[in-house]
Backbone:
């Protein structure tokens, strides 16, 4: 009987192990900025509607310095239109954006996406395909990606703004899809600037 | 069934994460050969915009054959050559085309993916990728015959990363022979397709 139990357990655990593979398009040169380090003041590019820009406290033309975003905390999601995990995560990201609003956190916590290696056209394909509700920036020449550590996608940075010291600090990182939208937002709130 | 076995089974099933049952594409990085940076271009193009495209008949991963002539008068055709299966940029290019099927359909254009790998290799690679909606053809034997006719066969036997848009009369209307190390922007191709309508 013990042998039977062993084989049954093995049979069930084997596929579980395979499926635990990371749900991300990994980058061979990735060196993400660690928690506690300073995020450079990224110069964000993209064609974004004035209404969406206004939600970030931004206006005018690109580039938009990350430090100009009016927020205590920024969730920066590095994605790519070409990454199947990002395609599957798109509805959850819209849910996250909606949940931030529902919980009344949208004044302090802002969410942005950066399309790694994606042109304005490609970012717009992603925006329209998934009816994305939060601002998406482009990064056709991988300039932003180099600055954020050539990360795989999707990659989540939680960034705390420190306007006094003119610094942006990395508070939390995640490679791959969120386990749950609610659980992820709880984590963000825990580490966000108060 | 013994109660212990039943308990063990139920507990383990409950412990299994939901995504065990989900379809899971995207290829783990350890299965992708890292090619490093290659010479951007390594061939001389033999065709130009306005030329008739050479006809071809190539085997596809679904066990059929595909030819240019079958689309004559019916659909425009985009040939998307990628250099090789199981390499980084190539594995990241075609999954993006999965979300723009509607753009190809609206522009009455058939996308065909082509590499110089053989059919079983392409089959395994596409399966690992999670599948694509468009036919994938093998220009394996005679090796790179179509790539050679277009002038995009590299000295090492791979094809250039390139896009050819061919209209319903079989005339080449757009060519992008791209730096092999980077992915071509989708925008100019889609605009060229839409201009054909």
Residues:
């Amino acid at each position: 009987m013990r042998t039977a139990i062993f084989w049954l357990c093995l049979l069930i655990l084997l596929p579980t192990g395979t499926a635990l593979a990371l749900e991300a398009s990994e980058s061979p040169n990735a060196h993400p900025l660690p928690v506690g380090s300073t995020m450079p003041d990224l110069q964000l590019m993209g064609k974004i509607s004035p209404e969406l820009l206004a939600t970030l406290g931004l206006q005018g033309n690109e580039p938009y310095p990350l430090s100009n975003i009016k927020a205590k905390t920024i969730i920066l999601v590095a994605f790519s239109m070409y990454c199947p995990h990002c395609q599957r995560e798109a509805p959850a990201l819209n849910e996250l954006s909606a949940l931030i609003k529902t919980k009344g956190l949208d004044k302090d916590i802002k969410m942005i996406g950066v399309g790694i290696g994606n042109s304005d056209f490609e970012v717009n394909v992603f925006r329209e395909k998934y009816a994305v509700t939060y601002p998406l920036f482009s990064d056709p020449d991988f300039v932003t990606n180099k600055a954020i550590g050539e990360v795989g996608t999707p990659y989540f940075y939680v960034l705390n703004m420190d306007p006094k010291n003119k610094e942006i600090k990395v508070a939390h990182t995640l490679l791959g899809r969120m386990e749950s939208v609610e659980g992820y937002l709880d984590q963000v709130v825990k580490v966000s600037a108060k | 069934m013994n109660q212990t076995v039943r308990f063990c089974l139920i507990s383990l099933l409950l412990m299994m994460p939901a995504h065990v049952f989900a379809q899971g594409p995207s290829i783990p990085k350890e299965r992708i050969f890292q090619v490093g940076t290659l010479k951007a271009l390594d061939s001389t193009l033999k065709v130009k915009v306005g030329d008739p495209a050479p006809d071809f008949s190539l085997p596809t991963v679904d066990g059929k054959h595909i030819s240019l002539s079958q689309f004559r008068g019916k659909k425009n055709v985009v040939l998307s050559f990628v250099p090789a299966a199981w390499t980084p940029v190539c594995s990241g290019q075609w999954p993006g085309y999965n979300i723009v099927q509607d753009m190809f359909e609206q522009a009455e254009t058939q996308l065909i993916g082509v590499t110089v790998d053989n059919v079983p290799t392409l089959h395994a690679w596409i399966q690992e990728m999670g599948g694509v909606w468009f036919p994938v053809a093998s220009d394996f034997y005679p090796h790179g015959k179509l790539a050679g006719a277009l002038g995009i066969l590299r000295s090492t036997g791979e094809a250039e990363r390139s896009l050819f848009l061919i209209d319903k009369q079989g005339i080449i209307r757009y060519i992008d022979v791209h730096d092999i190390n980077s992915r071509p922007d989708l925008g100019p191709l889609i605009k060229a397709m839409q201009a054909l309508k």
About this structure: Chain B touches chain A through 35 residues (CB under 8 Å).
